[in-house]
Amino acid sequence: MKFYFVYILLCADKSYYTGITNNLEYRLIQHQNGLASAYTAKRLPIRLEWHLQCTDPKDAIAIEKQLKGWSRKKKQALIEGKWEDLVKFSKNYSEYGNPKLDNL
Fold first, then answer.
1. Which residues form a coiled coil (predicted)?
2. Which residues in 43-58 are b (16+ Cβ under 10 Å) and which e?
């Protein structure tokens, strides 16, 4: 069975890079050697912070696209396994209000 991996890297400038691959170990080597992405090549060293293994490439692609749209705080909550924060950072302000404005 073939596997696909969605991953989040922490770059030297503290930014996150989200990617997808079918060979995580090899892809990390490429990133570390500046061969995988112009983005990470300029922000070495990198460190793997999180990954998810999928069996369906369509699932992996959908998850990667979803993660790329997330805020930094939401990605940090995922990486740290802080599920309550993940939910909190997912809430839509138009539906739930802005906590900063609710106390005015």
1. none
2. beebebbbebebeeee
Distance separating alpha carbons of residues 85 and 63, to the nearest angstrom: 19
The dihedral built from the CA positions of residue 47, 51, 55 and 58, taken in this order, carries a sign that is negative
| pLDDT tens-digit readout, 45-82 | 999 999 999 999 999 999 999 999 999 999 999 999 99
Residues 11 and 62 in one domain: yes
pLDDT of amino acid 10: 98
Local structure of residue 71 (DSSP, 8 states): -
Q: In terms of residue numbers, what domain contains 101? A: 70-104
Q: State whether 62 and 31 are in the same domain.
A: yes
**What is this structure's pTM?**
0.85
